[in-house]
Amino acid sequence: MSLDVEESIKQDIDLRLKDIAKCEIQRERRLKLYTGKDRVIPVLGFLKSYGFIHLAAISCVDWLDDGEFEIVYNLWSYRDKAGILVKTRISRENPEIDTAIPIYEIAETYEREIHEMFGVNFPGNPNLTSLFLEDWNGPPPMRKDFDTRKYAAEKYGMRDLTEQLKIGMDKIKGVRDGDEIL
Amino acid sequence: MGLFKFSRSRSLWMMHFCTGCGAIEMPPTMTSRYDMERFGIIPMATPRQSDLLLVTGYLTVKTLKRVVRSYEQMAEPKYVIAFGSCTMRGGMYWDSYNTVKELDLYIPVDIYINGCMPRPEAIIDAFIKLRDMIDKGEANAWKNYRDNLDWYKQNQAKVFDINKWSAKI
Amino acid sequence: MAIIIKILEYILIAFGVAILGLIYGGIGRKITARIQNRYGPPFYQNILDVLKLFGKRNEASHGVMFDLGPVIALTGILTSLMFLPLGSSTPLISFEGDIFVLFYLLVVSPLGMALGAGEGANPNATIGIARGLTMMLGYELVLFVSIIPLMIHYDTASFYKLVQMQGTFPNWNFFPFFLSAFAGLIALQGMMGLQPFDVVVAPHEIASGPMVEYSGRFLGLLQLWHAIAVIVETGIIADAFLGNGGAGWFILKTFSLFMIVIMVAAIFPRFRIGQAVKFYWKYPLIIGLLGFLVLFIWR
Amino acid sequence: MRYFEYFVGPQHVGVTGNMSYHLWADGDEIKKMITSVGYLHRGFEKLMEYREWVKNVPMVPRICVPEPDVNEVLYAMGVEELSGLVPSERAQYIRVLVLEMARLSAFLFYFAGAAGALGLYTIPQWTIGDRDYILDRFEELTGGRAYHIYTTPGGVRRDLPDGFKSRVQETMNYLKKRLIDYDRLMFENAIIVKRTKGIGIIEKDYAMNMGVTGPNLRASGIKADVRKDDHYLVYDKLDFDVPVVGDGDIFSRIMQRRLEFDESIKIIEQVLEMMPDGGFIEKLPNPIEWKVPAGDVYVKLESSKGEFGYYIVSNGEEKPYRIHVRGPSYTHGIQVAQEKIVGMRIADVAPFLFSLDVCPPDIER
Fold it and tell me: Where are the extended beta strands (E) located within C88-229?
């Protein structure tokens, strides 16, 4: 397999975004691009004009140990048939990154979700209301320090069924020992 | 009175509310292969007209509010069939932060169907069981709700703000 | 004395017609089911449904008018039943001009429904009412246009006389006035509120429309209204175009018409309300107007 | 100006699942809509972080209910790419077979929904009844009707049963026969054409900018298919067309699926013919202690609704660090529907939403 298309994309990106972004080829039809928090919008603007018109998703990864959130913009070019992951890191203390709506209109919903699930703020996004959760009172649930098991046990506490289980187990045992006719 | 009871068990109108993934086995049950209209069960568009609520799978808190509200709008006598493991003890989502685990804490349940997800045969079996239960006068979960309203409301209040979300009976 | 017997007779007829209408509905469901490759409910299913609805413990009420709505609807259709000759039998009330009264009375039921559902204040019901009344503009016109040639031809406005003068099999109005009959049949489809004209209930759009808030006994009354309406509506077409005859023939004719309507409904999707009314004002109306030509040719 | 407020869902026949729309209408014309999703949010992405790599296999199919196999295959593809496993060719062919059968069953579901929304209640009865024959084949192959949990990282769980190929071929022949009836009743029905032509148009450029994918994008006139562009499994060895209808209205979206239905049958027949012999699963490490090497990967494939994608991040532990699921309905279910529904009639809301094939569980996960 040849990586001609990927190489040429990398060359173009390196040429245009030499100082602000680092590009690497992951595999066939997949590239990665690392950039700084403040440079994301110009980088995305360039990539869109380059042909990456399809924003497939915006993901967020919580790197708890590093104290950072990683925002991953997932782009695809219908012309070159290649995808690129644009990654940037923002601090966990004050998570804030400019909205990508001016470039990709569809970013609105993705940013809304990340705002709700991670508590990342997107200045410029007019619609940062809750998307999936309603009357949510806990911390943003997708953060690594949110323990869903503890939260679920506290909120939805299940009934203790050990007694019933014991009765059931005794029945099974009785059947096994031949006390009861099957 | 016997005639009313007979007709009650043979004409169950179910509410068209797909609350979870169990809803994927409802269309086959409704349509030509399994055809539940044989038993007089047809989907109805609104809670007012329906007798049977099918909780098809896990309920998120957001859906639970709507389910409770829809359930309270149904005219008595009304019956509830809950689908799948996730309505019993949380099933696959036992540690999820957004789904309720035991459904009968919040609304009364006549019949649980186990499995993930129940096959159409299991669903039809549940319908037949419910029919027998109504004939024998055992399907009384709705009376239970009426009698123990405080207990149910108390449980609902643990999960959401009932003053905001649930109608007063 | 005679009047008491007549009233008793009428009550019996009304009861019988209601049961008959429910059984038609059940058989209709069965036929639809067979078209759809399935077994279908028993033919008495609709009777069970109504019984169940009357056996409900409580129902929601939104005020006096809301409760009265179904009653008005049922009264309207029962009154129109008084004017309808069931085959060759004399209707309870018959006078010169009763066709107009019958047509007026047919509007009472939807209006009663509209008044009742309107008080429910459910947006779905409101849209459903608006659609129902608009729909009436479509099919009523066509129905009238299809009946008028008969009235001119027999020179009477009494339904009973019209049916009597028409005679039995080879003398059916259907043969000379087949264009009018065809228009009437299309109007029947709309009157019964079935596809492609089921815009009023349209579950996918407005969740069963005007009936959205009704439950229990009120819904039961509405079901009864529907059952009687089936007989009255098919009865009008059967009487006007398919000759007179005994009660057995009447049942056979209305049932055949009902079957045609049900089968057409099974294979058509739904019009948008605008399209439905436009459709009525175009093809069936033109066909109905062409029906007038028969008057000039035949006479 | 005060508008008429009107709710569609979550308890409503006219929604494509458990979601709701808040509409403002002026007479019969929609002026504004707000989508409300989240009724099915189970927090899959969080739950997957708490489970071992193998334990997630039965978890993922629950994400998209009408077409669960895409999730299994995607998850397997992602884990394989991270850990350097390559499934045997036979396993890849079986995966294609499963995917295409799932696509057919999802399309039959789609026809049922679209016809039901238009009031043609015979088609749902037929298509969903016929879909059961595909489910029968699935049951024979995997043991499950709805959720199959058949594809695992490294291959598939078991080999094809004896005589399976001929029975799949029989099912395909039956479906081909039935399609004639469907065509007559639905796709050539004058009223359906009248109801759906020119309504709910999604323009080409708009669709591309809003991230609409799959059949909806092709119905708008762009020839893009993940199976061709980002070919995975053995799709590059198979011969099939990508039909493009191109008008972007409701009718073309329905027709798009109808044409792709034929292509999927074609693919299945080819797969049955070309399937090589060989093993069906690679040797896997001890599943409890399986540590997938650190790294991140975005895998995607073409589902019946559009581009389904998994972004999987591993930090070299027993459990995934983060999995982001890109559901195809995410774009057209929320923003596109919200913007394009303005100006439509109330009667067209349900057909429009059903024609877009919005699947709430893959939006909300």
Answer: none
